[in-house]
Design a protein that fits this description.
The chain has about 300 residues and is of the alpha+beta class. The protein contains seven helices and eight strands; from the N terminus they run ααααββββαββαββα. The chain has three domains: about 90 residues, no CATH class; about 45 residues, SH3 type barrels, CATH 2.30.30.60; about 80 residues, Alpha-Beta Plaits. The chain is elongated and about 115 Å long. It is found in: Cell membrane.
Length: about 300
């Protein structure tokens, strides 16, 4: 009997590790399949979710274009929607991996708060971007001047606005600084006043010069005939009588009309012998004939 107990004990000692290994292998296969399926499903969710997000964002953009939604709103809203949709997809991916999605959202919110506190300037630019979209002091395509910078608005982004200058330069302006400083928008009105300041000599006939310059404005096709045309004395300068030549042209024709009028004014004044004086100084020598001449006396 004792011999049989020894044999059973020896078998238990030998077979127990194999049983434990079998149990561990079974557990590993079970858990491994679960983890593997979680990873595969999470990866598929990520790929399909991002693909659907891209399609959805493009669909929304097309609908905005079809409904003639302002380009400024489209360029500002589309990136926000893209980020929002991808964040929702990531929430589902976290759930597929077996983590608590609400905890992930809470952690994401905490990270967002910390980043927001670290980037307060960026948040102010973001808020200013929203205000620009809502109140529309300008939109994409407008020609604006702000903080010594001028050009056509290329895009209004989340944090900044991009303008293109007439020299072909690209200037990026923070939305916060742009919204909180004066902005001159030349594109709100259809027409823009064009000023040509020209000087004539004091010896020239003003009425003749006025008639010649008004004729120049009448002949130019880009000058709007329904609005006033002005040729008046602007100031009496040191070497010339400065005239204000003013008219209205369309915004799209401004620079073309600018070059045409300046050239036409020069030619018209030359053809009519009206001088355009340059700064100079006249010296007048006064001869006093009554002054007595005292001869030099030699006392030697």
């Amino acid at each position: 009997m004792q011999e049989q107990d020894k044999v059973d004990s020896l078998q238990d000692v030998i077979t127990t590790p194999f049983k434990d290994l079998e149990n561990f292998t079974q557990w590993l296969l079970t858990k491994g399949s679960e983890v593997g399926w979680s990873l595969v499903s999470a990866l598929l969710t990520l790929i399909i979710g991002f693909w659907v997000t891209g399609k959805l964002v493009k669909l929304i953009e097309k609908r905005m274009v079809a409904r003639n939604v302002d380009l400024s709103i489209r360029t500002f809203l589309i990136p926000i929607l893209n980020i929002l949709f991808k964040a929702i997809v990531l929430t589902f991916v976290v759930g597929r991996l077996g983590f608590n999605a609400s905890g992930f959202v809470a952690a994401l919110g905490g990270v967002g708060l910390a980043v927001g506190l670290a980037l307060q300037g960026s948040l102010s630019n973001f808020a200013a971007g929203i205000l620009i979209i809502l109140f529309k002091p300008f939109k994409v395509g407008d020609y604006i001047v702000s903080q010594g910078n001028e050009g056509s608005v290329e895009s209004i982004n989340l944090l900044n606005t991009v303008i293109a200058t007439a020299k072909g330069q690209i200037i990026t302006l923070p939305n916060g600084n742009l919204f909180n400083n004066p902005i001159t928008n030349y594109s709100v009105k259809e027409y823009r006043r064009l000023d040509v300041n020209v000087g004539i000599s004091y010896d020239d006939d003003f009425d003749k010069a006025r008639e010649v310059l008004l004729n120049v404005l009448e002949k130019n096709e880009l000058v709007d005939d329904t609005q006033s045309k002005t040729v008046e004395i602007l100031e009496f300068a040191a070497s010339s009588v400065n005239l204000a030549v003013r008219c209205y042209v369309k915004n799209s024709d401004y620079w073309t009309a600018y070059w045409q009028l300046y050239r036409a004014v020069k030619y018209a004044l030359d053809d009519n012998n009206i001088s355009m004086p340059y700064p100079h100084t006249e010296m007048i020598i006064k001869n006093e004939s009554n002054s007595s001449t005292i001869p030099f006396e030699n006392k030697d």
